[in-house]
TrEMBL record:
Record PANTHER family: ABC TRANSPORTER GUANOSINE-BINDING PROTEIN NUPN, TRANSCRIPTIONAL ACTIVATOR PROTEIN MED
Organism in which the protein naturally occurs: Nocardioides jiangsuensis
InterPro entries cross-referenced by the UniProt entry: BMP_lipoprotein (IPR050957), Peripla_BP_I (IPR028082), PnrA-like (IPR003760)
Phylogenetic classification of the source organism: Bacteria, Bacillati, Actinomycetota, Actinomycetes, Propionibacteriales
Cellular compartments annotated: Cell membrane
Pfam family, one: Bmp
Name the record gives this protein: BMP family protein
Length: 357
């Protein structure tokens, strides 16, 4: 007989079906499932921890979903939650089916993931299960009673990274490879361009889009085209660009997580998205009641939701000390509120003369 367990928020889930359901989902959707240990630090006295289920459209190697996954793992390590996940749920139909199966068979205390390529599917599933909080990366608004949204508001670290790249280029040509010209990507690229302008008003930024969220081969090819056009510093908004920078022995900025290990002599820094403040907000819903909130501000640098990785001065060509100081001073201005990075979500041009920005 299946054992029924009750979580701290009062939901039930069928423990004996959990592993079987996850395997069936993986087979049906082409994704991979995983479980994380409950940790135990926050569940003293045998109290059960809330179960948060991660549902991701791309493989976890894609940095955007990888950042969410990492934050959920950190909450496990701190004894705050139980966590299971499935990734590579790559179509809207698969996303809707997966969410419905997880909500029905496991009844988690919250479901978290990304909805950009499957907004309608996620919102439809959320409406069918109003007692379960849904919190998804999204470009749309929250919906009562249980659909919260968040996004990677990384304009602050993007500006700082732009300052670095502006100070490092010798050809005055910088390459950026992004996913597609949507608001969440545009505001990062545009903030990066403004950062370049602060340290090098003579620079040109070349912007290419691969029109998908995950295609490392296409991103690498786009980066190689920019290098051929004279770019000697790159910004890897998408996975695949760092490989091109390493082969050409050029400085590059990573994205979402510290990517220094991928090319220690080339990655000067990375934009960091710390999703843990967002996860903590979702955990509050999981242990209380569902809500429909815009959780985007939890990604701001002054909220601890974003940063840049430590500047790697050992890269090819080095990093001037005065440039490091400029970036550190600007970061302090962002943190103390004396500087606010502009948010511009308009689509950037393919070749940008930063002096005109």
């Amino acid at each position: 007989m299946a054992q029924i367990r009750r979580t701290s928020s009062g939901h039930h889930r069928l423990a004996a079906l959990a592993g079987t359901a996850a395997l069936l989902l993986a087979a049906a959707c082409g994704g991979e499932t995983g479980e994380e240990p409950s940790g135990g630090g926050g569940g003293g006295g045998g109290e059960e921890l809330p179960l948060i289920y991660g549902v991701f459209a791309t493989p976890l190697e894609e940095p955007w979903d990888g950042a969410i996954h990492s934050a959920l793992q950190s909450a496990v390590e701190d004894g705050q939650i139980e966590y299971k996940h499935i990734d590579n749920v790559s179509t809207s139909d698969a996303m809707e089916r997966t969410l419905r199966d997880i909500a029905t068979n496991e009844q988690p205390d919250a479901i978290m993931g990304d909805a950009f390529a499957a907004e309608e599917a996620v919102r439809k599933a959320a409406a069918e299960f109003p007692d379960i909080p849904f919190a998804f990366g999204s470009g749309e608004k929250p919906v009562d009673p249980n659909m919260s949204v968040f996004d990677n508001w990384l304009q602050d670290p993007a500006y700082l990274a732009g300052m670095l790249c502006g100070g490092l280029t010798k050809s005055n040509i910088i390459g950026v490879v992004g996913a597609m010209p949507i608001p969440e990507v545009n505001r990062i690229v545009n903030a990066f361009v403004l950062g370049v302008k602060e340290t090098n008003p003579d620079a040109t930024v070349k912007v290419s889009f691969i029109n998908t969220f995950f295609d490392p081969a296409a991103a690498k090819q786009a980066a190689q085209a920019q290098i051929s056009a004279g770019a000697d510093v790159l910004f890897a908004e998408r996975d695949g660009v760092i490989s091109a920078a390493e082969e050409a022995n050029l400085p590059v900025v990573g994205m979402m997580v510290d990517q220094k290990e991928e090319a220690p002599k080339n990655v000067v820094t990375s934009l960091l998205w710390n999703v843990r403040p967002t996860v903590d907000a979702v955990t509050e819903q999981a242990t209380g009641k569902p809500a429909s909130e815009d959780l985007g501000t939890y990604s701001f640098m002054k909220e601890g939701g974003s940063d840049i990785a430590p500047i790697n001065t050992d890269i090819v060509g080095g990093v001037p000390d005065d440039l490091v100081r400029q970036v550190e001073d600007k970061k302090q201005e962002i943190l103390d509120g004396s500087f606010t990075t502009p948010v511009d979500e308009s689509a950037p041009k393919g070749s940008i003369d930063v002096s005109q920005q």
